[in-house]
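Fill in residues.
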């Protein structure tokens, strides 16, 4: 206990800053190392009407526009994740959580984004999901004994996301501890500047304390 009494308040503040910086460095390093990569593809949904009918093209396009939200939901359904997961050798439930489908504005373009632990894995999964989605959408829109009412074309292949440069964990820990200690030291200096009577950097000796008491009385 005597050892702790000899530690000045500003030393506690610097030590606390170092600990907080150490924790922050670990958190940043852990998030950066485990952050997934995303590979995206774009597919164009086009209606295929009957060429013998005048308003067939307009009607087919209207049909596709009305079903774009449905196509987005199909992207993460078992109709897509099942075949894609078998091709990838993974679990369809897990794959469904890694897929995000969104309609590009007021168009018939659907964006398919798939995440993975590495850039190559994300792109590989995105290719499998895109192929499976095209097959599923075509089957869904094909009348028995007829042709598909919708044609799905890939306008942007799944891209390879750039690799991130993550500093080693030990460097982040050291940097965080040093940064926290410096911040704690600056806080101590600020307190002594704002409240010089209350916060002093140097411990007073017994003689100095007695002299201050005598002056006060």
């Amino acid at each position: 206990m005597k050892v702790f009494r000899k530690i000045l308040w500003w030393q506690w503040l610097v030590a606390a800053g170092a600990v907080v910086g150490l924790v922050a460095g670990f958190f940043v390093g852990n998030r950066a190392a485990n952050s997934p990569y995303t590979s995206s593809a774009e597919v164009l949904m086009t209606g295929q009407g009957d060429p013998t009918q005048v308003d067939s093209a307009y009607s087919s396009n209207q049909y596709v526009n009305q079903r774009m939200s449905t196509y987005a939901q199909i992207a993460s359904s078992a109709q897509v994740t099942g075949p894609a997961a078998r091709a990838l050798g993974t679990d369809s439930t897990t794959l469904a959580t890694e897929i995000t489908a969104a309609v590009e504005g007021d168009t018939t373009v659907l964006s398919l984004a798939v995440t993975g632990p590495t850039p190559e894995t994300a792109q590989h999964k995105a290719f499998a999901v895109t192929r499976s989605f095209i097959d599923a959408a075509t089957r869904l829109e094909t009348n028995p004994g007829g042709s598909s009412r919708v044609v799905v074309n890939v306008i942007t292949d799944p891209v390879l996301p750039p690799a991130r440069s993550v500093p080693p964990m030990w460097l982040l820990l050291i940097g965080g501890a040093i940064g926290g200690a410096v911040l704690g030291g600056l806080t101590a200096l600020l307190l002594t500047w704002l409240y010089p009577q209350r916060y002093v950097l140097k411990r007073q000796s017994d003689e100095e304390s007695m002299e201050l008491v005598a002056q006060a009385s």
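Residues 36-156 form a domain with the Alpha-Beta Plaits fold (CATH 3.30.70.1130).
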